[in-house]
Amino acid sequence: MSKIDRALAELGLTLPAVTKPLAAYVPAVVTGNLVFTSGQLPMIDGVLAEAGKVGAEVSAERGKELAQICVLNALAAVAAEIGSLDRVTRIVKVVGFVASDPGFLAQPSVVNGASELIGKLFGDLGTHARSSLGVAVLPLDAPVEIELIVEFA
Amino acid sequence: MSKIDRALAELGLTLPAVTKPLAAYVPAVVTGNLVFTSGQLPMIDGVLAEAGKVGAEVSAERGKELAQICVLNALAAVAAEIGSLDRVTRIVKVVGFVASDPGFLAQPSVVNGASELIGKLFGDLGTHARSSLGVAVLPLDAPVEIELIVEFA
Amino acid sequence: MSKIDRALAELGLTLPAVTKPLAAYVPAVVTGNLVFTSGQLPMIDGVLAEAGKVGAEVSAERGKELAQICVLNALAAVAAEIGSLDRVTRIVKVVGFVASDPGFLAQPSVVNGASELIGKLFGDLGTHARSSLGVAVLPLDAPVEIELIVEFA
User: Fold this and answer.
1) Closest A-chain CA to C101
2) How far away is chain A from the Cα of B103, in angstroms, using its nearest Cα?
3) Which pTM does this prediction carry?
4) In sequence order, what are the residues at sequence separation of 6 or more whose Cβ sits closer than 8 angstroms to the Cβ of residue A105?
5) Distance CA A152, CA C92 (A)
């Protein structure tokens, strides 16, 4: 059992099966020692866990949970490319898009669902740069979409 | 005639002249063996092919055609930097921004206009990671904006 | 005094202290010879310089000034990682997110606040690829958010 798998298990989590892309692309691509993931939606077993805008139909707290689901999907995509998450040497960048009610301004607290899980799993190797954006609408009316750039050896 | 030029010709397409940036930047930059393009609008001969939001003034089908125009502009920018698209070893990442009517949720089908053309031109080297986002408004009221990260040798 | 520090001084500018992230991440990460910054808001001494949407509460001209503040924060984050901005060999990519009134279409002119400052500071090494997007809302209701990818030696 790999170190990161153990860390996941301690949190009561497991990597999901890699989410099938919605269209003509792949979940992640390796170039050099970087993995670029596709934007990951909060899909569970191929179904969107929840739809709607954060700050309206979806609470900030629920948005944070959904961001965590996005990260699990992103890490599953990374693991499928590089074999094991134990090869990760740095989570370089997280970009979090939050489908936001116009009055909702706490995008960072939603994307923290991604950042905090990464911190728990990867420790110092997980300290990443990050951008959080509020967008009008995401594919399938998803509340959150997360993409990663990951360095590995 | 290069391989990719032939593939373009078979689709009845040609690379356009590189679109002049709207401001103080350049169409693409090389770092190491990667090319990062600027966000490309659906410009034809320096004029925006169409304005408006997808799902309102612009249909999803038309949005898909516009995404293809964006990709041609992006590939023209890449070719201008590296000399020939035959040097491309991987299309690493496509990010597609769709200026969306609030009720429009099919951003992935629009950005497929980009992905499918890349697949036809580059085959396996064209299988890319991708993020599709719905945004409120794009420069010049463009319906679509596409950026690429491309690996070359 | 470094070359870039001199260029800043000639413009009457200084690098700010690195802006504390809003959440569980860091201002910039180095991978290989690239620095990826977090999305930077127009913070001055830890306080958002101005809130609101460009084209509504915030003018395009003011948005441009705020984009310049974002870049100073981003460069401060880069300098903190690599020691001196004189090590920069290329500003590779600028992504500018403009929180936009639905009728505001001049995102590129706002993001020019970033591009023009970079040009003044870095000359040819500052000619970058760029994407400008209009988004519904940014963290803390910030009008602008800027992220950079920077190459260094």
Assistant:
1) A102
2) 8
3) 0.95
4) A134, C137, C139, C140, C141
5) 22
Q: Which residue of C has its CA nearest to A152?
A: C31
Condensed to tens digits (0 to 9), the pLDDT of residues B95-121 reads: 999 999 989 999 999 999 999 999 999
CA distance C99 to C138: 6
Q: A118 vs A141, B29, C76, CA distance in Å?
A: 25, 31, 25
CA-based nearest residue in chain C for residue A96: C39
pLDDT digits (tens, 9 = 90+) for C48-87: 999 999 999 999 999 999 999 999 999 999 999 999 999 9
Residue B29 with chain C: CB contacts under 8 Å: 90, 92-93, 127-129
Query: Could you list the residue range(s) of the whole structural domain that residue A117 is in?
Result: 3-152
Name the β-bridge partners of A47: A44
Which pLDDT tens digit goes with each residue over A93-120?
999 999 999 899 999 999 999 999 999 9
Q: Which two tokens stand for residue B144?
A: 């679509």
pLDDT at C81: 94
Q: What is the largest CA-CA distance in chain C?
A: 45
Bridge partner residues of A34 (DSSP): A31, A151
Residue A24 has pLDDT above 80, yes or no: no
- Domain of residue C119, CATH code: 3.30.1330.40
Touching subunits for chain B (3+ Cβ pairs under 8 A): A, C
Place of tokens 């509020």: A134
SS3 state of residue A88: strand
Site of tokens 């516009």? B66
8 A C-beta contact, residue A26 and residue B128: yes
Residues of chain C in contact with residue B135, where contact means CB-CB under 8 angstroms, are 133-136
Q: Does C26 contact A102 at a Cβ distance shorter than 8 Å? A: no
Number of structural domains in chain A: 1
Residue B92 tokens read as: 């690493």
Complex ipTM: 0.93
pLDDT for the residue numbered B90: 97
Structure tokens at A151: 């360095």
Are the Cβ atoms of C136 and A134 closer than 8 angstroms?
A: yes
Amino acid at B46: G
Q: Which of C25, C92, C149 best probes binding to A when mutated, by most A CB atoms within 10 angstroms?
A: C25
Check A136 against C136: CB less than 8 A apart.
yes
- Token pair for C106: 């001049």
Both tokens assigned to C138: 């940014």
pLDDT for residue B131: 96
> In chain A, whose CA is at the least distance from the CA of C37?
A129
Write phi, then psi, for C24 (nearest 5 degrees). Answer: -80, 65
Q: Residue A113 is which amino acid?
A: G
Question: Which two three-digit tokens encode residue B124?
Answer: 């396996």
